[in-house]
Specification:
17 helices, transmembrane helix, Sodium ABC transporter permease protein NatB, D-Maltodextrin-Binding Protein, domain 2, ABC-type transporter activity, 2 domains, 4 strands, about 70% helix, membrane
Length: about 400
């Protein structure tokens, strides 16, 4: 047993030093983990600030506003700015070069208003143009306010109290706490951390298996008196160590990254401290080990590094698509999510961002699945190396 541990430690140190000497691995570690957190948070700040600026702009694009002085008066009293829409507004909305919906006023709007007839205001948007579609609801609320005001004036002229026709009133009550709203906004963070771990371990796993075979150094290594399991565990330990290091750096990078937040609302909602970073690391450790083992199992049969890269895209694709299951499931998080690698980690990390406490039962299923996955993949790698040594 001591001989196995000693040989494993020797292989582990050799593979880890080789991985650290590889500039590509180091560059991947730095770019994908250390820089990722601040970059993602800065982009989020820019996105949220842009959305707030658009919401506060209160600009209304109108065609033929000259035909509706009453509507103009109401809109300007609400502190909105009226602008004439360009003549080619439909083409520009389709081309997404125009980011606001256009309100089209009929030529006889004021006459119909005077006769007490319902006038039709057309709100033109393109549902494929997300910016314009997002602004439609704000314009609808503005026009609804104008309609209510006109209805109240007509009732008042006829001596009828407007409250008589108001059967009920709807008031919004949001049950989400600040942590839940922040988790909805920051739901992409677990996915970025997850993919950083996968891409960080990818190069080391391929280099220690297919890379060694391509360089011709795998066969001499198999002639070494060390046991196959010592070679497999040493290589796996080095690859997993790289993945775990990236997991730690990625989770920790969001701590200083908070200082770069330039949006007050986002800074108030973003609650990411030492507990969240520690929980992320705990959730990612078993996955990093499992991903390292699976990538080695995929690459061990490949004759070249390039072939291994092509085959490993299946693993990367599976890990990147698994979290999308939660998006397509409209019934919320299902209990079986935690039994699916990658999906379980993202689900639990989102719970952490929502402020929920994770118990041992919640952690058991992803740890168990990753342990089984690692054992099966490593057994396959050991069997493949044994076969290669006999040839």
């Amino acid at each position: 047993m001591s001989a196995l541990l000693k040989s494993t430690w020797t292989v582990f140190r050799k593979e880890l030093l080789d991985a650290l000497r590889d500039r590509r691995t180091l560059l991947t570690v730095l770019l994908s983990s250390v820089v990722m957190g601040p970059v993602v948070l800065v982009l989020l700040s820019v996105l949220v600030s842009s959305m707030e600026e658009r919401a506060e702009a209160r600009e209304l694009l109108v065609r033929n506003i000259a035909a509706a002085p009453t509507l103009r008066n109401y809109v300007e009293r609400q502190a909105w700015t009226l602008s004439e829409a360009p003549a080619d507004y439909e083409a520009r909305l389709r081309a997404r070069t125009l980011g606001d919906p256009v309100l089209v006023v009929p030529a006889d709007f004021e006459q119909m208003l005077a006769r007490g007839e319902p006038a039709v205001l057309e709100l033109v948007a393109d549902s494929a143009n997300t910016r314009a579609a997002a602004g439609s609801r704000r314009v609808e609320r503005l026009v609804e306010g104008f309609v209510r005001e006109q209805a109240s004036l007509r009732l008042a002229l006829r001596g009828v109290a407007p409250q008589i026709v108001q059967v009920a009133r709807v008031e919004d009550r949001d049950l989400a706490d600040p942590a839940a709203r922040a988790a909805q906004l920051l739901g992409m963070l677990p996915f970025f951390v997850l993919m950083a771990v996968v891409y960080g371990a990818l190069n080391a796993a391929l280099d220690t298996t297919a890379g060694e075979r391509e360089r011709g150094s795998l066969e001499p290594l198999l002639c070494n008196p060390a046991s196959r399991w010592a070679l497999v565990l040493g290589k796996w330990g080095a690859v997993a160590a790289v993945g775990i290091a990236i997991a730690v750096l990625s989770a920790a990078s969001f701590l200083p990254g908070q200082w770069l937040l330039r949006n007050d609302a986002l800074a108030a909602l973003f609650r990411y401290g030492a507990y969240e970073a520690g929980a992320f690391v705990v959730l990612l450790l078993p996955l990093a080990a499992a991903v390292a083992a699976v990538l080695m199992a995929v690459a061990i049969r490949c004759r070249s590094f390039k072939e291994a890269q092509a085959n490993s895209t299946v693993v990367v694709l599976a890990v990147s698509l698994a979290p999308l299951v939660s998006l397509f499931n409209q019934e919320g998080d299902a209990p079986w999510f935690t039994w699916v690698p990658a999906l379980g980690q993202v689900t639990l990390m989102n719970r952490v961002l929502r402020g929920e406490t994770l118990d041992a039962v919640a952690l058991l299923s992803p740890v168990l699945v990753c342990a089984v996955l690692s054992a099966v993949a490593l057994a396959y790698v050991a069997r493949t190396l044994r076969s290669a040594a006999l040839k």
